[in-house]
Specification:
alpha/beta, Helix Hairpins, five-stranded mixed sheet, two-stranded antiparallel ribbon, 19 helices, 7 strands, globular, disordered C terminus
Length: 521
């Protein structure tokens, strides 16, 4: 007799409605005619709202709502009066997300005790077009918002998290400053090639250090460089305290001997370039303390553990943490990948099935950018991922394929580390980076105030697994010993920070296995 194979039931039941948007259990409890939905279509200075029951019977007609305290309070009172009049036992407020303008309605309504949900503009559009094709007004949008809420697309937003929200705001501000700085560099290069043609070829990167910009500001023409000579160039740089190498000055002098004369408007171009360079330097001065603040906030989250991955630095980990939010919001690593849109779109109809389309468009693009930036770093600086990308490249894979594959693998590794409170462990990677060592080097480069650096390291120690304290302490002891033989701001900062950190790790002294001598504290 043939045995019958039993099919294992699916772990996740197939559901039509989203778990965080469905209101049907509540509707079943009170009845459709006793469940109210307040639809709000937001704009910059005012909004429009209406109240209807589940069936779409309008109880309060579309009404204008100015974004002032008195009008908002009056709207809530009218909603409650209408609910009492029509015997509405349960209701929700559904606000269409409109940039940040919807928060002018959402926050006051929540503060006054109403349950507020958010519907995506994409859902509003999809529910408006079948009913009102080619007709978009505030009233048709309100009807579409109501239909979206009835079908489970009025989503409950996660409660705010102060640390991750600050991380996201500061990381985006820093990224904006970096982009503006890049634009300024391109503009300066254009001006520089007018009044000092060919000068930038003397440097691999004219903005790596201050030699190129200082000489361009002080001299401004090949003739002035020729008249100054190598001795004059050296004097100018020493006066302003800019470090240099003699071979660089020799290249500059050789360039000036054969450089063409600039046009008549060269002085005006130089003046414009100086103003642009002042703007660029100002943005650099803003970025450094921003990055120190990012490190301080990152150390208060479990995402600090990502620093143990070779190829991930403080800034990229902070951007990822800010865009992700608390890790508890994600059920699996697949949830991260789906939210970032790192999956191909699919078109299937009958026997036609195109699985490998382009990446889906409706995704959190800021999170996708943060993940792909980390993937770039891993493919450049991590031995394992560098080898993988090389293998795929030799196999003829599209570079975009490698980029997304590395991003997906990082998401799985990051989820296991952050959700599980673990440092980096991988069977194909022989070593991991030490978190505290990375943070200390970061603060030395950024000349972070000692008090702020100590607070960052103290929070990072609290996030470390207990089993990793000895390994971190051993790494720091070696750093402290080498710092005693060096000079400069960095070693002095290390000498002030490391003894306190070692005490927090529960290590009073670390003995050398070769000599048995105590490492100086």
């Amino acid at each position: 007799m043939a045995t019958k194979t039993l099919r294992r039931p699916s772990r996740r039941p197939h559901e039509i409605h989203k778990p965080n948007g469905s209101v049907h259990p509540r509707i079943q409890q009170v009845g459709p005619e006793r469940f109210g939905i307040v639809s709000v279509d937001c704009a910059k200075a005012r909004s429009k709202w209406m109240l209807a029951d589940f069936y779409g019977n309008v109880l309060v007609r579309p009404t204008q709502l100015n974004h002032v305290k008195s009008a908002l309070r009056a709207a809530v009172e009218r909603i409650r009066e209408a609910a009492a009049k029509h015997q509405i036992l349960d209701l929700i407020v559904v606000v269409e997300r409109t940039g940040r303008y919807h928060n002018a309605v959402r926050h006051p309504f929540v503060a006054m005790g109403l349950e507020v949900r958010v519907v995506h503009p994409y859902a509003t559009k999809q529910f408006r077009q079948p009913a009102d094709p080619g007709n978009k007004t505030d009233d048709t949008d309100l009807s579409a918002i109501h239909r979206a809420a009835v079908n489970g697309f009025g989503l409950v937003q996660s409660p705010p998290d102060s640390i991750h929200d600050q991380l996201k705001i500061l990381a985006r501000h820093r990224r904006d400053l970096v982009r503006k700085g890049t634009t300024l560099r391109c503009q300066i290069r254009e001006k520089l090639n007018v009044f000092m043609p060919g000068f930038e070829t003397c440097f691999a990167d004219p903005f790596n250090g201050d030699v190129a910009t200082t000489l361009a500001r002080r001299l401004g023409s090949p003739r002035a460089v020729r008249e100054a000579g190598v001795v004059g160039l050296e004097r100018i740089l020493r006066d302003v305290g800019v470090g240099f190498q003699n071979r660089t000055l020799a290249r500059i002098a050789a360039w000036a001997e054969d450089a063409p004369d600039p046009p008549d408007e060269a002085s005006t171009e130089q003046r414009t370039a100086i103003e642009l360079d002042d703007d660029r330097r100002g943005k650099l001065r803003q970025i450094a303390p921003l990055e120190s603040d990012l490190a301080e906030l990152l150390a208060q989250t479990p995402y600090i553990l990502l620093l143990s991955v070779p190829g991930i630095n403080v800034v990229s980990a902070a951007e990822f943490a800010g865009e992700m939010g608390p890790i508890g919001r994600y059920a699996t690593s697949r949830s991260i990948i789906r939210r970032a849109g790192l999956v191909p779109s699919r078109y299937q109809s009958d026997q036609v099935d195109r699985k490998d389309g382009p990446l889906i468009r409706q995704a959190n693009h800021d999170l996708r950018q943060a993940i792909l930036m980390i993937a770039d770093n891993l493919m450049s600086c991590n031995d394992y991922f560098r080898g993988l990308s090389k293998e795929w490249r030799e196999a003829g894979k599209d570079p975009r394929h490698s980029h997304v594959k590395v991003a997906g693998r990082f998401c799985r590794i990051a989820y296991q580390m952050v959700a599980g409170g673990q440092v980096f462990r991988h069977p194909f990677c022989r070593r991991r980076d030490y978190i505290l060592n990375k943070l200390i080097k970061f603060h030395c480069e950024h000349v972070t105030p000692v008090v702020q650096a100590q607070a960052t390291l103290a929070n990072a120690v609290g996030r470390l697994p207990q089993a990793e304290h000895v390994a971190e302490a051993t790494s720091l002891a070696g750093e402290l010993e080498s710092a005693g033989r060096k000079r400069g701001r960095g070693p002095r900062l290390i000498g002030e920070l490391l003894p306190v950190v070692l005490l927090r790790l529960g290590v009073n002294l670390v003995e050398s296995t070769s000599s048995g001598e105590e490492v100086p504290r």
